From TrEMBL:
This is RNA exonuclease 5. It comes from the Eukaryota. Residues 1-41 are annotated as: Disordered. Residues 504-578, 599-677 form the RRM domain. The keyword Transmembrane does not apply. InterPro entries: Nucleotide-bd_a/b_plait_sf (IPR012677), RBD_domain_sf (IPR035979), REX1-like_exo (IPR034922), REXO1/3/4-like (IPR047021), Ribonucl_H (IPR013520), RNaseH-like_sf (IPR012337), RNaseH_sf (IPR036397), RRM_dom (IPR000504). The keyword RNA-binding applies. Keywords: Exonuclease, Hydrolase, Nuclease, RNA-binding. It holds the Pfam family RNase_T. GO terms for molecular function: exonuclease activity; RNA binding.
Length: 769
């Protein structure tokens, strides 16, 4: 995904931080109307386009910490956005809409009238179930203590509760019940996704097939495989191969001489030196032949990121278990083999005292990890709480790097087992009392469950009274557990995906019998990137169905090509007609008026040979141009034939539209319109469009009827929530940073990304930029 290019760049913040007393005094002066000319309003700046729009919890924490504490308490500007004149902030208010995700915001987009008209900064948020716990330092209750046993501590703090297990990525992937080894083998789709050599793939031409094509059962033999590679003129080439059987016996441990000239032996990791390879006569074809002879017809290969080993071996094997994927983590991350061996098996491998890795040792470790997982089951693997163990290991390693005197002094001065202070603790030290309202509240003992029957109306009433008295507030509104059932979430996901597909699709025709499809595709391609184009043959005369990748392209086709003469025919261009599409025109209009799209235009018809530099030069004459965003395909990395331009002033965007329409760049005629989905929504639509069937799963027909009833109630609930947020927002003082969080959904039935909206309230009641 391309990053946005800031044409004018960020400015450095002019105001230094202020302590709590100065900030309170500034608030009093503003409230009394005696601010004076020297006072400046706080502002928020962020370029949230493309991959920059995905924000982690740590990045969100950076923002909250700086906004609440400022520079004088050693807080630094967040890395992904900038607050100007932080000392003038009247306060920070975080509104959490529990049990809701980005999916809910766009499913009920028309109901969220206030949110979409006020907050111009939006970002995709990593789904989280314990945002408040991490905010309040409650992670200490789950964190393993530093014990003599190190990472294998079995204290209660290391054992997650059953409710936590449901959200563990291992349980979400495999469920809690044991299954045989075949249940953990990578499917063909997974092998393609993770770049495994596939039989018949053009990229694997010349690869050797192991011919292990007998059907696998839960009794099929496991073999651990690991290779060490060096860098040659050809790329990665094998220099050593190890294969072990299910009992850990080494069946093959051979040095291999590369075919090409070695550029880097990577001795630190491979343990291979030039001297070691000098007498070696074994070549890759010899190893391929030996592996084919050793492996039985129903063999299952086990390895850690085994795709790299098979690619280097230039071999194809149909049945594999990849331990880097078996012990699943969130967000596509993977545990290292060294860590898993220590945490799960209690073994030390890849020791620093040794020169390079021992492939036989690594192959054996991967095999034993798979055996543990198969024998103990996913629930037992999840109970190890690997994420917390890794955090503890990192902390121990950091502590070990400190000078011995500092560590001894620290141990003498600090009581044992104290969690690292969170910034809410720091707030209290500076005299600022944080406020938490909702189903979880903060008392002297930390975060605790409040009355679960408390209503959103009661939360709002308390917030209106208490928020003005606090400099940092977290207000929680709840959707309600009755609206979080798996089939309801799956149904909503399927409905949103279906509607997005229809909004991205147009039908055009009729055409003559032998019309030129190439010229039709070329004409419609000028509106934006095409996902698919097919000829409709069910009609009396031929039509075409075009599915675009971006909403703007489909809308541009409807607006500019309806009634046009293409391929010798005067055609009609329209979207599909269905019950869900009846409000399409209203939705398009509201997206166009969305405050996030203010001052942003969409430009199509770009040649793919154009670079960002070329486009900056072409568009440099446009007045007040602030940011250029050139979207790229998330899989291939190639940029599309369109871009988004963000202007500092809305009128400048209007003027640019008049100039750009019909403008020719490098022989290509441009088309443009107001943006509909320029920021985080562009990426989310792409993901929804390319993940068909992966989120929701199958939905029974009788449950769809329940969904229709629940959806009506949910629509009313969402409308009330939006009204509550509007009422609370209007009560805030000017210069208050307000952040709305849809935390996202993490469950055994799948996950949905969260969404964040943020802004600093100005005199007009909107968020200042």
């Amino acid at each position: 995904m391309a990053k946005a290019v800031c044409v004018n760049g960020y400015k450095r913040p002019a105001g230094a931080g202020a302590d709590a007393g100065e900030r309170q005094a500034a608030r009093k002066r503003r409230k009394a109307g005696g601010g004076g000319p020297e006072e400046k309003s706080s502002r928020l700046s962020a370029a949230l386009f493309g991959e920059d729009c995905e924000i982690s919890r740590d990045q969100l924490y950076e923002l909250l910490k700086y906004a609440a504490l400022g520079k004088c308490h050693n807080a630094t500007q967040p890395s992904w956005c900038r607050i100007y004149h932080q000392s003038q902030l009247a306060g920070v208010v975080v509104i959490v809409l529990r049990e809701m995700s980005q999916l809910h915001f766009y499913k009920f987009y028309l109901q969220f009238k206030h949110l979409r008209k006020v907050f111009r900064h939006r970002f995709t948020l990593t789904p989280s179930t314990n945002f408040l716990a991490s905010l309040c330092g409650e992670g200490a209750n789950l964190e393993p203590q530093n014990t003599a046993q190190g990472l294998t501590s079995t204290s209660n703090e290391c054992i997650p509760k059953n409710s936590d297990l449901e959200c563990d990525p291992i349980i979400r992937k495999y469920g809690g019940k044991k299954r045989g080894l075949t249940g953990y083998m990578l499917t063909l789709e997974e092998q393609k996704k993770y770049d495994y050599p596939i039989k018949g793939s053009p990229r694997c031409k010349g690869y050797i097939y192991t011919e292990c094509d007998q059907q696998r059962t839960d009794s099929s033999p496991l073999f651990g495989l690991d290779c060490e590679m060096c860098l040659t003129a050809k790329g990665n080439e094998v220099t050593r191969v190890s294969l072990v059987d299910a009992q850990g016996q080494c069946l093959l441990n051979e040095l291999v001489k590369p075919e090409s000239t070695v550029v880097n032996y990577r001795t630190r990791f491979s343990g291979i030196t030039k001297k070691m390879l000098l007498p070696v006569k074994t070549r890759l074809p010899d190893i391929q032949t030996r592996l084919k002879k050793i492996l039985p017809r129903d063999a299952v290969l086990v390895g850690h990121s085994l795709n790299g080993d098979l690619q280097a071996l230039e071999m194809i094997h149909p049945s594999v278990i990849d331990t880097s994927l078996l012990f699943a983590r969130n967000e596509g991350r993977r545990f290292k083999l060294k860590f898993l061996a220590k945490a799960v098996l209690g073994k030390e491998i890849q020791c620093e005292q040794k020169l390079g890795h021992d492939p036989a040792e690594d192959a054996r470790a991967a095999l034993e990890l798979a055996q543990f997982f198969i024998e103990q089951g996913p629930a037992k693997a999840a109970e190890l709480n690997l994420e917390m163990l890794l955090t503890a290991e990192v902390s121990q390693n950091k502590a070990a790097l400190q000078p011995q005197g500092c560590r001894v002094q620290k141990q003498l001065n600090e009581p044992p087992h104290l969690p690292t202070p969170c910034f809410l603790d720091c707030l209290q030290v500076t005299g600022q009392k944080p406020l938490l309202l909702g189903r979880q509240e903060l008392d002297s003992s930390g975060l605790r469950q409040s009355n679960l029957s408390i209503s959103n109306k009661q939360v709002l009433r308390r917030a209106l009274a208490d928020v003005p008295l606090s400099t940092f507030s977290v207000i929680q509104f709840s959707l309600g557990p009755e609206y979080t059932a798996s089939h309801l979430l799956a149904g909503l996901c399927e409905k949103v995906r279906s509607k997005l597909t229809d909004m991205l699709t147009i039908y055009a025709g009729p055409f003559e019998e032998n019309f030129c499809l190439k010229s039709v595709k070329k004409e419609f391609g000028r509106c934006g990137p095409i996902c698919s184009l097919t000829v409709v043959t069910e009609t009396h005369e031929p039509y075409v169905c075009v599915q675009y990748e971006v909403l703007e392209a489909a809308q541009l086709a409807v607006e500019s090509l309806n009634g046009a003469e293409i391929a010798g025919s005067c055609i009609k261009v329209q979207r599909p007609v269905s019950a869900a599409m009846l409000d399409c025109d209203v939705l398009i209009k509201e997206l166009e008026l969305d405050v996030e799209n203010e001052g942003v235009i969409y430009v199509a018809g770009l040649k793919k040979s154009l670079t960002e530099t070329d486009l900056q030069e072409e568009f440099s004459q446009l007045k007040d141009l602030e940011t250029l965003f050139l979207p790229k395909d998330l899989q291939s990395g190639r940029h599309r034939n369109c871009c988004f331009l963000k202007f500092q002033k809305s009128q400048s965007a209007v003027d640019a539209l008049e100039v750009i329409n019909g403008w020719t760049v490098k022989g290509s005629k441009l088309r443009s319109r107001n943006a509909l989905a320029s920021g985080h929504l562009w990426r989310w639509i792409w993901q929804m469009n390319h993940n068909t069937g992966k989120q929701g799963g199958n939905i029974l027909y009788e449950k769809m009827e329940q969904l229709s009833d629940s959806e009506q109630e949910l629509r009313k609930k969402v409308k009330k929530l939006d009204h509550h947020v509007k009422k609370l927002y209007r009560s805030l003082q000017n210069n208050t940073l307000c952040i709305i969080l849809f935390p996202g959904v993490n469950s055994t039935h799948g996950s949905q990304s969260g969404l964040g909206l943020m802004g600093i309230k100005d005199d007009g009641g909107r968020s200042a930029c």
